[in-house]
Design brief:
This protein has 199 residues and is an alpha/beta fold. It contains 8 helices and 13 strands. The chain is globular, with a radius of gyration of 19 Å.
Length: 199
Amino acid sequence: MNTCYDCGCELSDNEVRWGYDTAYCESCFEERFNYCSRCDVLIGREETLWSGDEAYCNECYQEEYDEDCPDNPDVYDSDRKLILQLSRNWLSGKHNHKTLIKINSKDYLLTKLRDMAGLIDSSIYVFGLMDRDEYQISASPDIIEDVREYLLLKGCSYKVIEGIGCRRLGISHSLRKQNLQIVVSLIKRLTKTKELINA
């Protein structure tokens, strides 16, 4: 049995709503959290950004509305390596268009994932999902078949749903935490150019 963090009522396993790693009853969960209308990530009410009656996480909100873009953003170690590599390539006349995966940098598991994936051939946005029984991976329509095919080849039985947008991949918390190597290999496969895959 679990108890709700806010009101203290007892909850059976099928009544628990998880907010990050904390148990809540249905009504307390609804008072505290929203799901992003675009990427389906769980967000606290105080962190929710609104456009009309649509709730957004910070990353998705800034994709449409860039008013809060910082003048002097933080530069992460992996970004610094990319900047140096691109500068060296430019100075030596090489045109290398490799990049890092795009992520919500506030999620430390995604930052670790980005560092492990390294430079990739084509861009992709990877975001975190909360654990759910219905699915573990959300993939945009343009990559969903590649995701399903790769997981089938690897013998993984993760549930995949079709998300929205283009080149967007949502990974559940437990997969990011416990199966990071599979996630990294999936991302590397999805971001390889077709010529490299067929070679």
